[in-house]
Amino acid sequence: MTLPIAGILLSATQVPGLVEPPPLSLGRILSAVIQTVLLAAAVACGALCLGTWLAWLAEKSVYPGSAFLAKLGLLPMAIPSYLLATILREQFAPKSFLGSLFGTHGAFTGMGAAIIVLTLACTPYVQILASAALRSVPEAEEEAARSLGAKRWARFLRLTIPRLRPTWAFSMILVSLYVVSDFGAVSVLDCRVLTWELYNSRGARDAYQIALGILVCVLPLLAAIRMIQGAEISEAHHGSGRVSRSRSPLKGWSLSLVYLTHIVFIGLGVVVPIATLLIWVLRGVYYGAEFASVSDPMMMTAVYAFLGSAFIVLASIMPAAMASRSSSSARWIEHGTYVTSSIPGVLIAFGILNVLLFIKRNSFIASSDSFALKFLQDGGLFLLAAYVMRFLSQGYAAIRPALIAVDQRQIDAARSLGAKTATRVARIWLPSMASGLTAASILAFIAVAKELPITLMLAPAGHQTLAYRIFDAQSEASLPDVGLAGILLLAIVAAVQFLASRWR
Amino acid sequence: MKTPICSNLFRLSPVQVTQIRFGFVLCAALITHFACSETEPSNKVAEIQAASESNRIEQGEPLVVYSGRGAVLIEPLLNEFTQKTQIPIEVRYEKSTQTLANRIATEADQTQADVFFAQDSGWLGALDEAGHLAVLNDDLLGRVPEHNRAKNGTWVGTSGRARVLVYSPERISIEDLPDRLADLPKVAPPGRVGWAPGNGSFQAHVSALRHIWGEEQTQSWLEQMNALEPKVYPKNSPQVKGVSNGEIDIGWVNHYYLHKLRSSSPGLEAANYSFREKGDAGNLMMLSGVGVISHSDNQKAAEAFVDFLLSDDAQSYFANKTFEYPTVPGIELHEDVPFIDEKINRANQEHLTDLSGTLDVLRRVGLQ
Amino acid sequence: MEKILLELRSISHSFGGSTVLEDLTLSVQTGELVSILGSSGSGKSTLLRSVAGFVTPTSGSIWLAGQNVVSDGEERISPEERRVGMLFQDFALFPHMTVFENIEFGIRGQSGAERRVDELLELIGLPQYGTRMPPSLSGGQQQRVALARALAPRPTILLLDEPFANLDSSLRADMGRELVKILKREELGSLLVTHDCDEALGLSDRIAILDTADGGPSRFLQVGTPEMVYRNPASAEVAALTGRVSFLDDGSGSLRVIRPEEAEFSVSRSGVGRVLDRRYRGGVWELMIQLPEGKVLVDQPERSRDAPEIGSMGNLHLFTDRRVPVPQSVRECRNESH
C-alpha cells in the first residue's frame, strides 16, 4: 500500500518532459472531483433501486421464467465496464440500432452515458447483496405480519425496507467505491472524472494533485465500509428459524412492468453486447477488414492472468496464515489487505509508474546494473506487483475461510499419530486448503484478465493483453477488432467460470 | 471489490484438484513456448534479402521501437520488416506520441528505445531539440524531398496526411462548407461539430496555425470554435464514425481515416473536404516520421528500419493500406485518395514542434 | 355466552401426491383452549397454518366466527383478513422494532392504539419495556411480547405453534400458567399445537390427538378432555402419546392399559413378578416389573415402603382393567408368527 503512495509523492518530483505542460488549474481538479461525486451518487441510487427491485422479484415473486431471468440478470457482471461502454456508445449513436430506436441526437458520451453504463454494471452486485438480505428474513416474521393484517405493500414498507437498510448502506458505499475506481467506462465515454483525468495528465508534474483527489474520495468510503461492517457484527440482526421461501404470483400490469425491466436490463446488459460483438466480427469478415492479430494478445492475457493469479495467491497465503493465528493482528492485516485492494487501479498504476520512473532517473541505480532493471520492467514484474496490490483482497477473501476451516484438532491428531511437519503440511494442510486456493486463483485469473488501467500504464513494451487491445481498437474506431478481442476475452472468462462451476 | 459472496462458490473435490494441477502444467508449457518464440529466430533463410547483408545484426538483440502509431495500423508492416531482415522487433505502443517522446526524454541515455516512430513529426522535432536523436545518413535523407524531412537531418517523414474536414453529405451541403478554415466557426452548426484536442495531429495543426495566423487569431479562432460546444473525441477515426452514425455533422481530422474505415464498412456515410482556397491553413500536410535515438547501441538495425520504411514496399503500404500520402516521390496513391497537391499548405514542419506554446493556448481556452 | 369461534369440517390436505391430513373435524369455543397433540411430522403445524391461511387445505372447510374462510381448496379470505393471532415457536418478533412498535404493528393507525399497547404491556407484566429492542429481552419476555402482539388486534382466535419449545424448562410451567390466565381473561378461543403431553394435559380444556394409526395420513385419533384422553384412551397410540404407559397382552384380543400410578408392587418370594430395573425419580421409584404377559412400569411412592431390590420377586396389584384394541401393527406381527 505504501508503494503506490510513495509513487504518488515521487511524481511531484517528476522531471518535466520535452514540453512542460502548463500547471493544472484548481478549477479543473475541482470540476473532476464534483463530477466524480455526482457520478458515484447517481449510480449508487440507480443501482440501489434497480438491484433491490430485481432482488425482490427474484426472492419474493413468481412468474413464468422468473428464476431464469434472475440468473440471466447477473451476467452483466461478467462484461468489463470498458467493453460494455464501447458497445453501448456505438449502439446508442443516433443512426445505430438503439440510437434510432430511442431517437438520440448526439453522441452517447459524458456524464449521462456513464451513469447508465455504470448503473447496468453495478446493479447485479446490489441484486446479490439485497437477495441475501431478503433471504435472511425468517418466514415466521413474514407470516406474523400477515396474520396481523399487513398486506404485501405494507409488509414491504415495514418489514423488508428496514431489514434492507444495512445492506443498502453497504451496497451504496460498495457501488460508490466501484464508480470512483472505475476507469474503463469513464474513459471510453469521456466522462471527465478523476480517474480519467489522472490518466490523461499522468505525465504532468502536478498530476499528483488529481491522485490525491482520488484518495480523498476513496478514503472516507473505506472508513465507512469498516464502520458498517463493525456495526453489523455487533447488531447481529439476523432472525432465526426457517428462511422465507414463500413467493407471491404476479399478475396484470405489475407483471408487464416486471418483464419490461427484465427486457431493458438483460437486453442492454447481455443480449445487445454479445450480439453487437458478433455483428462487428461478422461485418469485419464480410467486408474483408484486416484484423490485427489476436494470438499475441490472447497469449499475453493467458500468461499475465496465470502469473498474476499465482502471485496473488502466493501473496495472500502469508497474510491469511498470519491472520488465522492471532486475532488482534488479524484485524489489522485484514484491514491492510482490503484497503490496499480498494485503491483504484489507476492510482496503483500511477504510483508504481512513478516509482519505476524514479528508479530509472537515478542513474546510480540504473547505470550500475541496467540488465536487472530491464528484466524487472520487461519481465512485467512491476505490472505483476500492481496486479497483486489491486487484487490481493480477492485471493485473501477466498483463502482465509479455507485456512480457518483447517481443523486444529486434525493437526493435533496427526501429530499424536507421529506425523512430522512436512507430512502434516502435505497430507492435511494442503488438501484442506486446495479448494480455497483454487477458488482464489480462479477469481484472480478472471480479475487480471479483465483488468485495464494497470495493464495500460505498466505493460512492458509490446505486451498487449486483450483488454489493452479492446481499449486501443475502440479509440481507433476499429470495431471488428473490438468485436474479436471482446468475444475472446468473454470466452476466456466464461470458460474459466464454467470450469470452476463444473469442479464445484 | 470485496467478494465475500463468491468465496463459497468454489468447493472442489480432490479429483478436481488434480485436474487443476494439470491445467497449471499446461499453462507453464504455454509460457515456455511463448518465451522461446521471442528469442528463437525463424529459420526461413530464403527470405533474407541481399539488402540486409550490410546490416546484418547479431541475432537475439531485438530492435526496440517506441511507436506513437497504433498497433492496428502498423503491425503488419513491422512483421514484414522482421521477415525481410531477420531483425526481431519489440514495440512499445503508446496512445499518445507526446507521452512516448516525454518518456524517451526522461529515460535519456537509459532508454531502451532504438527508434522513435512518431505519429506527428512535431514530437520528433522536440526530441531532436533536447538532443536525443542521431543524424541520419545522407543516403536515407536523400530519398525524400526536403520538405519531408528535418533540416538538420535527424528525422525523415515516412508518410503524409492532409488535414481535412469530414462531413455528412446527407446533412451538410458541400456548398455550405467554408472556403477557408478561418471561416469554419461561422458556418458550422452548434453542437454538431467534433474535434480531438488531446490528439497529436490536432495539437500539431494548432501549432502550425499559431505560426500562420499568429497567436491572437489562433486563440480567438479556438474560442469561437469552442463556443459551438464541439464534441470532444479521443482521436480522429471516432469522428469519422461519429459523422457517419449521426453523432456529429462535421469533424476535423486527417484525410485517411475515412478511407480506412470505409474499407471495412462500405456503407459509411461521410466525405472528406479540403478547403477551396489554395494553400489554406486548413489544408495542412502533416508528416509521420521516424528518428533514431542517439543513445541507442543498435544504430545499424535502427537505420535498417528507417531504410525499410522508405522502401517502395513500405511506402506503397502507407499509400494503399493506411491511405496516406507517401513521402518518397513516385509512389502511386490509392485510387480513393484524391490528389490534392495544388491546395496543400506545406507548413514548415519545424513550426509544428512548438508544442509548449500550443498547450498553453489550449489550456487558456480550456481545452487541456 | 359461548359460541363457536373456529370450526374445521373434514379438512384433508395432500402434499405432492400423498395425503398428510385426512378428514379432520374440530371446533373451538369462546374461552376454550384446545390442544392438538401429535408426534413430530404428524402434520399438526400444517393444520395450524391452514387455519392462519398460509396453507390452503386440499378439501374440507374452515369457519372462523361463523365465516367460511376456506372451502375445498379455495381460499375465501386471505390470511391478512382472517383476524387470527399467531404465536410462533421462535416468537418471530421484528428485530428492528421496539417492543412497543412490535405490539402496535397490527393496530397501527387505529384510534386508541397507544392505550391498547400500554394495556397489553401491563397485562404481560412488562410495563417498562416499551422502548427496549427484542434481542435484548430474555426468552420468556420475548414470548410475552409476542403474545401481546398477537392479542393487540383482538383476534377471533389465537393460534399457538409449540409456544414453549424454545423456553428453558424452568420457565415453561410458569409461562403456561400465565398464558392460560391471560387467555381466559381476554375470553379468547385458542388452538395450541404441541408434541409435549405434559403441556397439553396441563393447559388444555380439550385435547385432540393427531397422529397416524397405520402409517397413513394423520387423523384425530381422539378428542376429549385431558382426563378423558389420559384415563380412557381410545387406542394404544393415544395412550402412548398422552403419557407413560404399559400394555399387557394376555391373548384376549385386546391390550390392558396400565398407567404407572395404577399399579402397586409388593415384595413376595412366591410372586410372579420380578424387578428388572429401578430408577429413582424424586418421591417415587419407577420400577420395571417383568410379568409372564409382559413388562409393566410402576411408580412406587417412596414413603410407603423400602424400594425393592433389582431381581427381587413380588406381586403386582393392578387398580384398573381398561383395555384398548390391539393396534394394527401388532396384529400383523402376530399373524406372521403364527
Explain what the structure shows.
- The complex is a heterotrimer of chains A (504), B (368) and C (338).
- Chain A is an all-alpha fold and 504 residues long.
- Chain A has 23 helices and 2 strands.
- Chain A folds into 2 domains: 187 residues, MetI-like (MetI-like fold); 215 residues, MetI-like fold, CATH 1.10.3720.
- Chain A is 78% helix and 1% strand.
- In chain A, helix 2 runs parallel beside helix 6.
- The radius of gyration of chain A is 24 Å and the shape is globular.
- About 3% of the residues of chain A have low confidence.
- With 368 residues, chain B is of the alpha/beta class.
- In chain B, strands 1, 2, 3, 4, 5, 6, 7, 8, 9, 10 and 11 form an 11-stranded mixed β-sheet that branches.
- Chain B has 2 domains: 155 residues, Periplasmic binding protein-like II (D-Maltodextrin-Binding Protein, domain 2), CATH 3.40.190.10; 141 residues, D-Maltodextrin-Binding Protein, domain 2.
- Chain C has 2 domains: 156 residues, Rossmann fold (3-Layer(aba) Sandwich); 94 residues, OB fold (Dihydrolipoamide Acetyltransferase, E2P).
- In chain C, strand 16 and strand 17 form a beta hairpin.
- Chain C is globular, with a radius of gyration of 24 Å.
- Chains in contact: A-B, A-C.
List the helices and strands and how they pair.
The complex is a heterotrimer of chains A (504), B (368) and C (338).
Chain A: H1 2-10, H2 26-60, E1 61-62, H3 66-72, H4 81-91, H5 97-102, H6 110-135, H7 139-147, H8 152-181, H9 184-188, H10 194-200, H11 207-235, E2 248-249, H12 252-286, H13 295-325, H14 327-342, H15 345-361, H16 363-366, H17 370-378, H18 381-405, H19 408-416, H20 421-450, H21 453-458, H22 466-475, H23 479-503
Parallel strand pairs in A: 1-2
Helix pairs in contact in A: 1-15, 2-3, 2-6, 2-8, 2-11, 4-6, 4-12, 6-8, 8-11, 10-11, 12-23, 13-14, 13-18, 13-20, 13-22, 14-18, 15-18, 18-20, 19-20, 20-23, 22-23
Chain B: H1 14-39, E1 63-67, H2 71-85, E2 89-93, H3 97-107, E3 115-118, H4 121-129, E4 133-134, H5 138-141, E5 155-167, H6 184-187, E6 193-195, H7 200-212, H8 215-227, E7 231-232, H9 237-244, E8 250-254, H10 256-264, E9 271-273, E10 285-293, H11 299-309, H12 312-320, E11 325-326, H13 355-365
Parallel strand pairs in B: 1-2, 1-3, 6-7, 6-8
Antiparallel strand pairs in B: 3-10, 4-10, 5-8, 5-9, 5-10, 5-11
Chain C: E1 4-15, E2 18-29, E3 33-37, H1 44-52, E4 59-64, E5 67-71, E6 74-75, E7 84-87, H2 99-104, H3 113-123, H4 139-151, E8 157-161, H5 169-186, E9 189-194, H6 197-203, E10 206-211, E11 219-224, H7 226-231, H8 236-241, E12 246-249, E13 254-258, E14 263-267, E15 273-280, E16 284-291, E17 294-301, E18 313-318, E19 323-325, H9 328-337
Parallel strand pairs in C: 3-9, 3-10, 7-8, 8-9
Antiparallel strand pairs in C: 1-2, 1-4, 4-5, 5-6, 10-11, 12-13, 13-19, 14-18, 15-16, 15-18, 16-17
